[in-house]
Amino acid sequence: MIEQWRVPSASATFYRATATDPRTGKSIPLESNTDLRERIDKVLAAWHEPERFIHKSSWD
Predict the structure, then answer these.
(1) What global pTM score does this model have?
(2) How far is CA 23 from CA 3, 14, 36, 56, in A?
(3) Which of 18, 27, 38, 57 has a 20 to 30 A CA-CA distance from 47?
(4) What's the whole-number average pLDDT of the chain?
């Protein structure tokens, strides 16, 4: 999922991306960016290799 949003004081449009782990169905939040194509590529990458995008605490 990619959500478009704007900061009132900025002229740029941002895209917040969330991928879904195909194995578990859990959401994988991805950082925001102003480049829509890059966000699309990031969601696809997270779908193919979700373990690269799942952040774990240092104590895990």
Answers:
(1) 0.73
(2) 23, 28, 25, 17
(3) 57
(4) 86
